[in-house]
Amino acid sequence: MVHWKSLILKGRHVELTVVMPCLNEAETVEVCVRKALACMEQHGIEGEVLIADNGSTDGSQQLARDAGARVVHVDAKGYGNALMGGIRAARGKFVIMGDADDSYDFTALLPFVEQLRDGADLVMGNRFKGGIAPGAMPPLHRYLGNPVLSFIGRLFFPSAIGDFHCGLRGFRRDSILKLHLQTGGMEFASEMVVRSTLSGLDVREVPTTLSPDGRSRPPHLRSWRDGWRHLRFLLLYSPKWLFFYPGVAMMIIGLVAGTLLTFGPVEIGELAFDVDTLVGSSALVVIGFQAALFALFTKVYAAEEGFLPESPRIRKIIDIVTLEKGLVVGGLLALAGVVGLVMSLVHWQVRSFGELDPRESLRLVVPSATALIMSFQTIFAALFVSILGIRRTRETPVDHVAAVAEEAAQAVTREESPA
């Protein structure tokens, strides 16, 4: 049975769609729907409530319809998949999403709508500013999980959002659809903020409240599993923090220590550092250099595939560091490595090719081997970045229209030509 309000909305301009993901929320879905509809009616907002059902077996769908909501079924399991299914099916210009567990206040949607009307693309709720009722959020989430992950999000990305994981948020439907969000689980919440920020959308924040949910069963959220998924997403979308900064730090430590140890042992108090530490320093340099290269690879690949916006800085680096220059640098490093190995052979010859003192020989062999390894890394990296930088030709709508027009012109010419 289709609710009469849904029939009326089909012929009207819908400004707002309230999307609620749902998986067995029979205890609370009805009250959430009624609160959202009452709020829209109170403030004169033309809107609808849409339940994105993810396979409920407790009758949640019919309860939602009876309360006045429209229900769409989303086959793909997961929080993010359910929300994206609801966002695609929404009829409103604006969308406000919120959990159907009665923990968010659906009677206080007006601040989100006002910000959206004012031009915001994404309006986040902030539970820490609006108020968290006793028992509404586990201490682990309140004092560790959410603050730490939100801090990492602000550190990794140019965002001022204080509550990355608030489930009550509003946005322009077209703006979010253009982002082509990919994640299907709980990390969808982080992806929306990160991708919006990286794409330069207007992201704002309003205080909201959080109350204990009205369900008698445990929530779908799993603290450690879903917390890790959020952290993993933040790391994977920030090659600088995942690869570049750690890599540069390791290279600096390795180069400084290796340079000092090449000329002899280093003593700090009662500690003596010698060729064993030199080998470790060499490993740090190689690993750090590889990590920095992976940051470059990731940035180029992600930009080419549309996962991350193209970085003018990375594009400039690619334009400057050409394949030919990479081959030259790699060749020079290889030459330095070969020269070092030749010197080590000369050193061995001086000893009549007999037994060597590792504390002397390794000071020549280790830096030489390191230079050779980095030479091949540089050459292979230059080749790989050149491959990644090959831009594929994509047919644009203009190209398609031009092709259709050309075909039409050819058809007219054939018809006008004499048989």
TrEMBL record:
An example Gene Ontology molecular-function term: undecaprenyl-phosphate 4-deoxy-4-formamido-L-arabinose transferase activity
Enzyme Commission number(s) from the entry: 2.4.2.53
Entries under PANTHER family matching the protein: RFBJ PROTEIN (PTHR48090:SF7), UNDECAPRENYL-PHOSPHATE 4-DEOXY-4-FORMAMIDO-L-ARABINOSE TRANSFERASE-RELATED (PTHR48090)
Database matches in InterPro entries: Agl6_TM_C, Glyco_trans_2-like, Glycosyltransferase_2, Nucleotide-diphossugar_trans
Family assignment from sequence similarity: Belongs to the glycosyltransferase 2 family.
UniProt protein name: Undecaprenyl-phosphate 4-deoxy-4-formamido-L-arabinose transferase
Keyword line: Glycosyltransferase, Membrane, Transferase, Transmembrane, Transmembrane helix
Domain Glycosyltransferase 2-like: 17-176
Species per Swiss-Prot/TrEMBL record: Nonomuraea coxensis DSM 45129
Domain Low-salt glycan biosynthesis hexosyltransferase Agl6 C-terminal transmembrane region: from-to ranges: 296-389
Taxonomic superkingdom: Bacteria
One Pfam family named in its UniProt record: GT2_TM_C
